[in-house]
Each structure stands twice: as C-alpha cells, then as structure tokens.
Amino acid sequence: MQFQCFSPLRKSSFDFKLGDQTAERFVGFTVSFIEVNWLFAAYQVRQDDTEQFKIIKWRSSKCRILWHLPSIVLKSWWEYYNGGEVWEARPFRHSLLWMAPFLSGGGYSSEAISYVTGLEAAKMVQKLQIRQHGDLESAVFWRGLPPDTKRTLLSLFHEDIHLSYSVVICHSEPGAWYPPLFQTSPCPPTGYEEPLFTIGRTMFETDRVNPDHVKRCNRMDEIWVPTQFHVEAFTHSGVEATKLVKVVQAVDTDFFNPANVKKLLLPRGQSLFHTKHPEDLKESRNKPFVFLSIFKWEVRKGWDILLRGYLQEFSGGDNVVLYVLTNRYHMTNKEFSSLIDGFVDSLEIPEPEGGWPAVYLVPRHIPQVDLPGLYKLADCFVLPSHGEGWGRPIVEAMAMELPVIVTNWSGMTEYMTDFNSYPLPLDGMTEVLDGPFKGHLWAEPSLAHLRLLMRKVFSNPREAKRRGKVARKDMVTKFSPEVVTRNILKQLMRLQKEIELRERRDDPAL
C-alpha cells in the first residue's frame, strides 16, 4: 500500500510504503512534531487502482477519525508506524518472567522498573511476573519509591506463570545468570532448556566483555543491550552478532518534568574541606551557580577528575558551589572527609586568594520521590566518567532541562549531541589497573576541556539553558516510557512469531 503525506509544517509531501497490508485493516501511525501538538494530515491511499482519501486529526499522539473509508475497518489493535515499518501491536500471548534487582536501587533496578511498569500500563502482555534477582534488597530504596510504582511492582511479584510457557529475561550482569557466580536467585531459574526463550539484558562500561561473560551471553537466545556502542563492543568480544538486539533505556519524562517540580532547599551538606555553605554567603545577593554530580563512589566515575578540574578552575570568589550525591558505602563522615582532604593535599594546588570554591556532600540518602527536586535546584550536571553502561542520572538531568557536561564515550553517545549537551572530549584511552575489568580500556576525560566547559556553562547560562531545553525534547521524543515500551512490544511481537515458527517446526500438525 502506497501512502503520500503532506505536512503543513514542512510545506512538502513525502512518500513511504507500508508493505502488504490487507484492505480491511486500519493503518494508524504517528508523525511526530515538537513545535505543535496537533496537525491535520491528508493521506492518499492507493489500493486496487482506486484513490480514496481520509483525514485524521492527531492530538497528543491519539487520533480522531473525522472521515473514514467504508472499506477500511478499525481492528481491535493499533498498528504503529515506527522507523518506516508498520507492526501489529497485538497482545503477547505467552507469559513473561522478568528477573532483575527490582528492590536494590541502582542502574539495573531503575531500568527494569521502567520497563515492567511501562508494559503493565500498556496491558499488552498476557501474564507478566517479576522476581528479585542479581543484588541485595534495599529497604531504604523501597521506601523512597513513589506509591504507584510500589503498587504496580507488588502486583507483578504476585502474578502466577508457568515457566515452560514463558519468555525469561535475566536483567543483570552475566555473573548472576545460571549458574550464578555469587549468591543470588538463578536466572533462568532452572537453566536454559525449560523456558520458551531466554534473554539476557546487560551492559558494560569498558571496551570489551570478559571471556567468561561472553560464554554466558552466547548461552542465551538473545542479548539485549542499550546502545550501539554495546552492540559493537560485545560483537568484537565474541558474542554472536545474531543474538544482539539494541533496546534503549527509558527515562520517566513525566516524573522528571521541571514544570511539575518544586526545588528542594539547598541541603546543608557536609563541607569537604571547610568551605562555607551557600546559605552563609551573605555577601552574595544572588543564588550561587550550582553544579551537581550524582554517582556511585568508585574510580570509574572520575570523582578525582571532577574535583581537580573544579578546584583548579574556580575559587571562593566565584559565586559557585558543587554538590556531590554519592554512596560512600561504609565510610563515616569523618573518614570520608579525611579521604578528600588527603586527595586535595596530594594535588599540590595552591589555595586561591579567595579560598577554595564551595564543595558539599549531600549528607543523606535522597528518596526517589525527591530526586526531581534535587535536579531542579541545580544549574548544570557534570560527570567526567571513564565509562557508563547508560548513565541514568545523566538522562534524568536532561529530562529536567539541565545542561550536562559528560564524557563523550560509551553508553552516553547514544543520546548526547552537540545540540543537547556539552560532550566532554577525551585525552585518549587508559587501561583499567585493578578490579574485575583489569586490563580493559576505558576513556580518559580531558581535564583541560572539563575546566573549559564548566567555565563556559557558568559564564553563559542562557546558552546552557537552551541546550537543556533541547535535551528534554530529545528525552521526551526518543526515550520516554511510551516510546521505549513501544519498542519492547515490537521486540516481543517479533519473538512471538519466532516462537510460533519453532513450534511449527517441532510439530508440523500445528
């Protein structure tokens, strides 16, 4: 079926093919425009040498048929236009078991929660059960979740499925997969033979995958990774290319929406080396410019590069503050402060005439429900990381219209551009010196460019805000839960067809 669409915004027409679709099927698709939330579009439908027309009004991605063709019957399902391909969003008739660290917090946890809540809202999976897997439970994290999210997760924990009729998704690092290398519930629960189909959802932050993890990936039917960077790195490491599928991560653009959020009060955090709290800067008539960084306390996050760049570029004379939200694990405030003081002394940087610029550690766990307010108080998010699988705090900050300064390598390259962010160049690649990824390579962010970009954002906040607004638009149009859920449903429809083909091969009578 050949379609022609005229866009009143583009003032031009464009053609596309929908493939062989039957005449009785209603074809619905969305043409996305950022500038407006509705448009009228006329479509010319060519079928059996007969030209007929219909006009559809689109508003907020939902359509109202103003005039329809008698020969086209509206079915009980949507067909989505996505990337030049139309697919049928039918209910997934098999059960789906999703195993992930739902109760743990962190990147895998938030990603898995966004996936299953999106699928549950779509009501397109016949049976969806979730199970805790891959990490320890955190009562603090659970208490901080929004009430609606808790209710959804609790209902999915109690869903009943039969494993032999299920697709199993193991959403964790490969060491947790069957048989696990540490104490956790195995995934798949009984190995790889009983489920209909097994999928590993994982990612890495370095240039390669460990050989043992490659073997574990190749035991799965498919491996879902979040970015093209991972497709290439996994393939280069030895994971079978035919098993790799890119499924991006979602960010909740309704929850992380600056229009719906009030700023948190500047938290009176712990001073890292006797700098004054912003509320004590009585000589300043204006709110200080707030840099925010959120990360797990480890070398990979580049906290040393962040502090070095910030301390070298700014002084107490600048109306600026850096807030750091991090997990210090088992260190006390005194131990952590001593560690930072020792690091600053090792830099041998002379203290500026105006004193050190303000640096504060957010002193407590911030509940998930308060995170948007924390982003709202900031003026810029900064993270000179050596590598990220995806970068959850980064996309959350972008959804909150914050300009971000982040290393231009690994998972972040999937969503960062020169228009929606400040990509931080590299000084090259460096070898990981210890830990499970010893011998791998990761990025070495440029300290000189970090200083330059932080000063640029501080000195030109209007331009930074413009990039922040572009960032939010990109998050809404490309990575919102609705968009990502649609992609996952598309993958499930593909799997359903593959499972049906398997069943026919095994039983020709079907």
Automatic annotation (TrEMBL):
Keyword Transferase recorded: yes
Highest taxon of source: Eukaryota
All residue ranges annotated as the Glycosyl transferase family domain in the record: 365-420
Pfam family for this entry, one: Glycos_transf_1
SUPFAM superfamilies cross-referenced by the UniProt entry: UDP-Glycosyltransferase/glycogen phosphorylase
Gene3D superfamilies given in the database record: Glycogen Phosphorylase B
Name the record gives this protein: Glycosyl transferase family 1 domain-containing protein
Organism whose genome encodes this protein: Sphagnum troendelagicum
